[in-house]
Amino acid sequence: MQSRILAAAVACALAWPASAAEETGGARLADELAALREQIAQMQAAYEARIAALEERLDAAQRRTADEQIAPAQASQTTAQAADRLAAQRGTAAFNPAVSLILQGAYKSRKEVAERHIGGFVGADHHHDDGIESDNKRGFALDHTELVLAANIDPNFRGQATLALLDDEVELEEAWFQTTALGHGLGLKAGRFLSGIGYLNGQHAHEWDFYEQPLMYKALFGEHGYTQDGAQAKWVAPFDTFVELGAEAGRGRNFPGDDRNIDGFNSVALFAHTGGDIGVSGSWRAGLSWLQTRAGARENHFESEKWGEAHGAFSGRSRVWIADFVYKWAPDGNPARRNFKLQAEYFHRRESGRLTVEDDRSPWRTRQHGYYIAGVYQFTPGWRAGLRYDRLSSGRQSLGDNPAEIEIVSWQPRRLSAMVDYSWSEFSRLRLQWSRDRAMPGIRDNQVTLQYVMSLGSHGAHKF
Amino acid sequence: MRRILMFLLCLCALPAPAASAVNVLTTVPEWAALAREIGGERVAATSATSALQDPHRIEARPSLIARARAADLLLATGAELEIGWLPVLLRESGNRRIQPGRDGYLEAASLLRLRDVPETVDRAMGDVHATGDPHFHLDPRNIPPVAVALTERLARIDPAGAESYRANLASFRTRWREAIARWEAEGARLTGMPFLQAHRSFGYLAHWLGLENRGELEPKPGIEPGAAHLGRIVASQRNAPAAAILRAAYQDESAGRWVSARTGIPLVMLPYTVGGTPEAKDLFGLFDDTLARLKAGIGER
Description:
- The complex is a heterodimer.
- Chain A is of the alpha+beta class.
- Chain A folds into 2 domains: 2-92; 101-457, Porin, CATH 2.40.160.10.
- Chain A has helices spanning 2-63, 72-95, 215-221; strands at residues 98-109, 139-142, 145-152, 157-166, 169-179, 186-194, 227-236, 242-250, 267-278, 282-304, 308-329, 339-357, 360-380, 383-398, 414-425, 428-438, 445-457.
- Chain A has a 16-stranded antiparallel barrel.
- In chain B, helix 6 packs parallel to helix 10 and helix 8 (227-236) runs parallel beside helix 9.
- Chain B is α/β, with parallel strands linked by helices.
- The longest helix of chain B has 26 residues, at 162-187.
- Chain B is built from 10 helices and 8 strands.
- Chain B has a 4-stranded parallel sheet, with helices on both faces. In chain B, strands 6-5-7-8 form a 4-stranded parallel sheet.
- Residues 12-18 of chain B have low confidence and may be disordered.
- The chains are: A alpha+beta, B alpha/beta.
């Protein structure tokens, strides 16, 4: 019995290629025929549209005696010429990547503080080559110039690269490709990209409503938000209400992890967004995100009774939860003249692992949280005013017996910022901002910043 | 874990809501109205913007992404009118059917020859549209080519309804031709009427009816007028004043009212698109009301 089945299977397998080849031959012919039919149908549709246009013009010309009407023959000729010229223009434009360059700079007045940091939080160090961290710059200060190139790669993919330029430093902020033709609400992205967690994380500096990002983001990820070197999958659910789920896996080389150079992924993120409209005038989006990263030897400076200023290396796990909410309002849903935006995010981070300072090893457990809330109101075309409050809590920090005698700082970093900005057009903006910064224990810093953001070239549309 | 995965897989496998109607999303209300004319009962057509919203300026809101996700056909104006939000909407929707180049994406501007294509494009000129003026629906002769192309697309997406779409198209074109004749007869008295406009929205309307454009209140397209600029406009109207200042329902009236108060030129609000006024219920109502308001505005009753 078994052998007979086997024999039948072998016979089938042998017969398969031949019949398959025949079938594919037939199928190909059918495909070609279908393609031809479709082409003809398309041509027919295009001609019918054109003929309809001409008919309408002819009709109008016959009825009207107005002398400005062009003769139909002439009209068709110029139409064809114009269409050709337009097609040619569109063609070249479409093959070139959209290039945009964003100029950013500021005049800053603030206290001279040797080592700016956020009290009670280990810093995501980010040193620039000129030796002065951008946070410490006073007076005239040039910020990163962003260069963005984006285009469709082919019918299936789209790509984008974002470079941040400053002095002799070129930072590759983003370099990714994404799918455009998967359908079913699915989208994949791979390369280096801003993670989909939180609300502000996906926005570049020029999109921010205030000069600096919230304290929360600086404490969590350092200067640029969380960037993944990895892959992202997103899915929009087929519901009437917007529901989007996403997952990311990455190298996890950035703070709060570090580059462990391992097989597998060092960073995993999950996020969910939902949103909708409230009447005609209001719309909202809410999200919940989770990020887990691991560090092998994440280095930071610590103040130690025993060692003085000491290098410490953390190895272990970081887990961050972020809840975000945005509400936007505009009369009749038309934001052109007046609109309002309320935005808030909250995070909770737990770290657990080991801290090695010189020869001393101790456990490291922290639970920290914080939030910001910001409102921005455009009260008349071009003019916006905004207020933001930041507050973090250094929370629980435990180092076991603390053999290295590290100084544990307990602090509630906070900052209040108020800004007014004016935009001559969508492409130029000047902002005046005042902040009272109490991010560091014992320092009350009143800061005034006059900032410009100018964008050149074909600037891509922003997300909600 | 496995249960969650199974649940997710089931969700993925869910067919698009078992709606019998073809789901048409349009960027602006005039195309939704056209889709209703052609599609009739077989089509559920909605517009991403209302007549009170500036189609240049809205955002890719979450609710719009959800609607784009469900759409079988997206009918857009094109010519960069929706450039500030439609690309994001298309990308975020994850809907292959409505991506450019597919049957489910139709751009009206690609079917027509646009007016006012600038020779050179420079941002110093303001928000200019490199491919021409996108407000072409206000010349009713531009509607039928879009209707024909839309009919063909609907017939391809929903072959069972092809007969019905073509019948609706034929009926629409007959009624539309009659309506154009009526509007042109009514509008004949408006020929040569000089007007000012808030934004360059009425170029096609003016071309069709033979109105004379005396300029815009905006110093450059998309740039808010300042007092000095409006002052110059007021001064320029002293000797040969325009007959009306036109604004679309979604445009702010303050600049127009300011000029109107100082020159005595009537400020006339036009529906601009379907839904802009209670009378502009459909495409026919749009032009009926536009002509009625133009005539009323210049004191001809």
